[in-house]
Model the fold of this input.
Amino acid sequence: MKPFLGIDITTNRKNERLNGNEFLILKPSEILSQTLAKTTEQKDVIIQKSKMPLLLRIIKSICLFLAFICVSALLRARVSLAEAYHNAPWVFWLLPICVILFVLLTICEKVKSHQVLDTDENQHALATHDRVMKDILAELAVPDNAKNVDVLLLH
Done:
């Protein structure tokens, strides 16, 4: 049997071999695997700390969506701006409020991200993760110019 893209194309229903085993030639040492797991967890925590809270990200997305709706409504209106303001003044008030809120939340997001990611401790943790990844690739004899390849496993 030769799997195509890791898919078991055999007709044997009792095949218990994991799809994709053909692609597993080497595995990193247990020490490097554990170190990678720890540094990946630290990296995930750092990235999560650098993000805005979910509620503020939702508000930011809603503001952008409402701003697009307001602009679209103003551009598609077949009346003058004065008449549009007379018919729906809330659109003219909602648009700048949404744009200003979106810009402020975007700036706050960038500032928070830079504050969290630019600390020496976090820079060291991210560099450690990158170093562990390079060590694993070196241990597995992966060339520096090798391209990343995704292998899909189906269980």
Notes: The chain is about 65% helix and 0% strand. The helical segments are 30-50, 54-76, 81-87, 89-117, 120-139. The first helix runs from residue 30 to 50. Residues 1 and 11 are 10 Å apart (CA to CA).
